[in-house]
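sanity check this fold:
=====
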Amino acid sequence: MGNTDSAVPTQNRAICAVVLAGGQGKRMKSDLPKPMFEVLDTPMLDWVLDACSQSGISDVCVVTGFNHGVIEAHLDGRCETVLQSERRGTGHAVMMTRKWLSRFPESDVLILNGDAPFIDCETILGALWQHRHKGNAVTVITASIDNPDGYGRILRSENGISGIIEDRDASPEQRKITEINSGAYWFDTKQLLYALDRIKSNNSQGEYYLTDSVFILLSAGFRADAYISANSNVVLGANDRKGLLLLNNTARFDIINRMMDEGVEFICTDGVTIGKNVCVGAGTKILQGVILKGKTEIGENCVVGPNCIIENCKIGSGVVLNSVQAYDSEVERGARIGPFVQLRPGSRIGAGVKIGNFVEIKNSTIGEDTSVSHLTYVGDSDVGCGVNFGCGVATANYDGENKYRTTIGNDAFIGCNTNLIAPVRIGNAAYTAAGSTITKDVPDGALAIERGEARVIHDYGTKRLKARIVKRTGKQ
């Protein structure tokens, strides 16, 4: 195995990558290209492209095929694409990149599969080091697994490898080999182009196999070798929904195990899904049913769950989240939120804030030590510190055409069932009386009462509800 701690020989030599993403995935029973199926809410193709980026490979060409417009729209110009209009094997797919590869004659090219998401930076760079250190024309990335059934076996020689034998063609002795082909390779680009010109389709499928390039290069006197990845998951892909579930579970528990090593506590992993770009601080406890997505960051010594969905949020240390859905928002240290709370995009919750059951916050800033206890909607608002919201408060921020902001000063007290009709400002230490509909600014320290005059109409209920009462009680 290679050593990434030492300098890579000829390290100034260019590197590029070709990602094969033309898979149709018929057994998925979907019109979606196979590399676009998601593992932990991220398309498999993006896992592969992220590994290229982390390895310092900026020149990438993606080979598309079935329903190619979906992949091209998803990439949105992030890297170049070429179309494999006919599905004629992996070698044929790489042939489609000849013109693109000719732009990098003095380079090494990495070939990856767009539906094998667990390729990693350490494997890529380790294989590159070995590839250059030994002067290989091709270096096959391999893994050693307990059950190699169905995979191509690596045949080793004294000077590297002598070939790759498919499972169906292997002898009983060869089937005992546990080192298998991952389908990923480093090639000297010139030697790859040499091999592509000589691959034949004289097989039962009439396809061009990239594995044949190993035999071609060996026959021409070039050197071939294999790099055994420490990450046996590099060989995993998905051909159907069961395989996709296996990938998701593999990724899920890899992340959970890594986080436990980093000091994160899990009481139970039922329903817990954590994305690959999520960061969680030591001492934080993750409960059942928690889904952490996107670029979420959670601080130390928090309690998250049960039943939370947190996406693209920054959560400070010591925060408690109970049955919270939060999107594109920030929560500062020591806040306590839930149960049954939604933080919609653009919300910022200050330190020590308490948000209770059935509250929705949207595009608003809530100052430190404010309490929004229950049954309240705060939208497009700037709320100061130490504010108290009574039950049933709502900001009316939208008039059907435009949205307006509400401003509430420090230490204000918003009475139960207050409606704040934006744009409106409630001053510092101001009160609103319960049941008020506030349409005008309230000065600092003032009390605002805005209610209609009460009218009592005697015997109205007796007459209106008489038939209903008789039906219920049987009495006139």
Observations:
- Residues 241-261 form the longest helix (21 residues).
- The chain has two domains: 14-235, 241-448.
- DSSP finds ten helices and 41 strands in the chain.
- Residues 152 and 318 are 50 Å apart (CA to CA).
